[in-house]
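Posted in: Protein Modeling Q&A

I'm a second-year student putting together a small comparison for a lab meeting, and my supervisor asked me to include a predicted structure for DNA polymerase V. I've never done this before, so apologies if this is the wrong subforum. The sequence is pasted below exactly as I got it from our records. If anyone can share the structure token output, I'd also love a short note on what stands out.
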Amino acid sequence: MSTTLPLFWDLSSASKKERVDASVKLISALEQFQINHVPPQEGSDTEDGGGDALDLLNSPDVSYSIRRLVRGLASPRESSRLGFSVALTELLSRINTVTCTQVVSLISDSTKKQGSMTGQEERDVLFARLFGLTAVIRSGLLVRQTPLPSSGSSNTQVSSVESYEEVLKKLIEIGEAKSWLRESAWWTVGLAIDAVQDSSVPWKAKALGTTFEYLFSKDKESFWSSEKVAMTLKLQPLWPNHDWDSALAPVFKGPNIFSAGNLAPLGRILKESALDDEEASNPGSGSWNPQIHFVWDMLFDRLLPTSDSKQPPQGSFGEFFRIVVDESLFSSTASAERKYWGFQVFKKALTRVSADQLPMLFTKNLMRSWINHLSKSDRYLHKISLDVAKHIQSFVQENPTLGFPLILQLTGINGSQEFDKLTRTKTVESILTVMDNEGIKNYIVSLLNQVNSKDADEDATALNSRRAWIADQFAALIRNGSVPKSDEWIQVILDWYVVNGLYSIRKKSGSSSIHALRALPSPPFTEEFQTHCCTRLLSCLADLTSQTIVVKKGDKTYKETAVASDGEFWISKVLSTLARLDKDTKHVDPLAPVDEETQALLNGVGKIHEKLGKVSTEKKEVARGFELVLSSLVLQCRCGEENSVESLESCLSAASRMFASKKSSKKKGQQSALPADDGPEPIDILVDLLIGYLENASAYTRSVANEAFSHVTGAAQESTIDLILTQLERRNPSELAEAQEEVMDVSGEEEDESSSEASDDDGSLSEESDGEEAQEIRNKIIDLLKNSGMDDVEEDESNESDEESEELMDDDQMMAIDGHLAEIFRSRKDEQRSKKGVDAQREATHFKNRVLDLIDTFVKREPQSSLNIRLILPLIDLVTKSGMDEKQLSDKAKGILKNRLAKSKDVPTKARRDEVETILREIHQRVRKSHSADNLSVLSQSSLYLCRVLVQLNEDDCVVRIYQESLDDYISRKGSQANLSFFQDFVRRFPALGSRFRDPVLAASSNAVNSYRRCQAFQLLNVILSQHGKKDDQAITSSFQKSLQTTVLDLANGAIDDQSSLSASQLKDPLKVVLLCIRQVQKSDSPPKKAGIWDPAAWNALQVRLAACARFKSSSPLLNMCRQVESIASQLKPQKRNGDGGKRKAEEVVDVTDYSKKSDRKKQRKTKS
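Accepted answer (user: helix_wrangler)
Welcome! Here is the predicted structure, written out as tokens:
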């Protein structure tokens, strides 16, 4: 026992691992004790059930452990009940020297209730009895047939029907004692029934009869609960010949509780409400449990048996779910707790039903409650409703084929077409993302079938709303990038938009390849819906133009944007559909017939398309860009967009000039070398059209402009870049507003001239359109009239006639208020003009953002183009001169400069040296005047980019000269706004140029405007020398070493003589440079250059002077650096071989060191004294 006692404490541990480990060790030890135990030859009756009966056949450790484990079940410690019950179950299953009666008697004696117990103690006792009886059943002791080992007892039977009856009786008593324990107690009864049924005990039939007598007694025939329904479902297959009609009466009619007549009372029982129509609940139903009852698993096992089950389905699942769940748990009078149960039942049933049974779950009341509680976060059942939505999403991920039936239910008759919008979730959208292509096609077909279906009570407004929703659903499928795309169903959607947005169907064609022609709309589509379809067509093409897919041609695969899987533009596919529909005059009529002039223009586009398909490989990419723009303009013409015909003419002319055939140019002879006209370049015309697309600001034109420009970047010229940069120039917002106002004034004057007779009506309409502003002006005028003595002006306006109202004011009064009226109208006009200016400025900013997208595309596609040089200064202007309301514009320009240009691996190779140098000098001029650290960073990155270009052109001297001029200005002029990081970035980025930069830096330090700038010069020298490596071609020259030594010695001696205001910390910078330089000289492989440059005596003298100076003698780092320089200089100096010169020099160094230590000790003694 001494070895097992510590293990009982670990059985109560909160850690599951510790509890399991303690149980394993305990059972293993007890098994060994029992093996070594020798039972006595004579014994008493084992059926006595007393405490001494356990000791007859068990070792003392085992009998003690059984009693200790049983008593531990009532412990109030946190996890003792779990640990002790597991250990007890395992122990009873391992030993065969105890009987069921003994253990049950021990459990009963240890868990007796006493009158002096508190509520908590009574609860612990009940739980202990429940866990103990469960351990008896789980261990198999309840139905064990193995007799006890040989003993003096006359009865060796381990289990009996009497012991089973005792266990059953005590479990029912536990359920009756506390209603909240009834479910657990009856669940344990079910375990006992299963144990008896699975065993081969001879008293099996008698045990089942005893169970039936206890559960279905006469005095409880009218009382039914969920537990009693569960036991009925468990006993019916085990006892099929029993008279279940009388057993279930009068609550149920017949033995089948799944029959249609029994579903209503079954629903009331499972809802835990009274069987009659009263609202009172079952007596003893207890408090509400958030977990659903175990009977639901048994019900679904009967209604929805698994594939490996041998039992056929019982009853109709649809009727069961409608009556028992929807009309009971989700009824209008059901409480929130019952609805919570209902949602859990729904989740449990969802994983069991098949695709055919899935619609039976989404019943009317359930969907209403789910949508209501899911729509707002403050609803009582919002959390469980959201959990149901997530459960559905995960369910579809595991079963993608069920996504389509689920969407039909969510958007069907019991759901809502706007399910995601109403519930503020993305349930439908997330289901679509995990569906396969077959499911998406089925969903599209179902939507198409709903276009013409009309309910009997549905009016025209509801039908049009549903059709508009279907059109929006199609657009959402294309817009969602997570939905798996297929050319087949995308083409179906685009064809549907084209047919219904640009044509009217005269006659359906069932065999047409265009799916939209297979059904005649009834009733016909309205003009508003046709316009909606046309708009959706352009928005879908905008989304498709921005999406990238993998195109496979032969054995090669590559990514391309705006095309289908066959490499053809989606816009071109739409134009192909238009061409086919134009020829099919039998079935469709165009809503807007094309006139002859436009048709001729479209024919010309067709010819140029054929020519673009035959261009050479080097021009293929540019031809694709022209093809995309021409196709987009043709579609805009067919959709009735303004100015699309003029734009198409310009683009067609530019394409003809851009891709003129060589044969025609040869016929012209010498004139072919001359330009056809003095007009702009074809590429400039195209880019100007694209800029107009960006100004239009629709998603369709913006996506086409960006995609088309990415194809034609290789053909861009200087004039093209200048055209783009012109759009980024700053304009005064007032000028934009005045220009817009002039246009509005001209249109207003023309309208006034054409409709002068209706001025009164126009005035009233304008007053209504002004809304609050007009009412505010009216109130000001009324207040002005009241202040003029007309207090009853409002009453006079409503009561007096016009003639009388004219007499309210004389001429003097009118003149007095005339100025005030003019001021009121003037202030209103200024407010409107100010608002227009703000709007114009905002639109200009958005437009510039779109233009910057073109620049970003150009830099990304053409990193080696010399035209990138022209972009730098305008982008810098955007970064440095943009206001606070243009921060997005500034950030985007900064990103292009710092991320696209500065980090580009390639630089222009054919740039003009003069142009690059001019821009670099301009940047350095701005560096000297910039007051912002962020702007300096951008300028530095831009300068480094231009330096890379110049280095590529072998213009290293130019780079060093420009940086030297800026450094001289920074060091010698206090007003310079440059910083040290600007120059450090340069020397770190170009170490080779930095080695040529050290002499100018050292020279500039002598001309420093103050000590701070001088120290910064030496800090820069430190960075330059740190970049110097052993493999550097340019070693540190002798002249630089001499200059550095002279400069630093003069600087240090001057500081000692108070000729400069250098502090000790500032003097460290030049000494660090000297120490770094001399160390590198020491490591170099050029001995002749080492000798005779560094003077150890001078550094020794400097060290002595520093130690004697009151300002620097306390600075140990300065003194140590001087000693190190002196030591290395001594090693570099040629040594004399005769005598002990080298030894004496070393001794001198040691003496200096010792001297400093002695002086430090003297100082410490003085301070102590």
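A couple of things worth pointing out for your meeting: Residues 511 and 564 are 24 Å apart (CA to CA). The chain has 53 helices and four strands.
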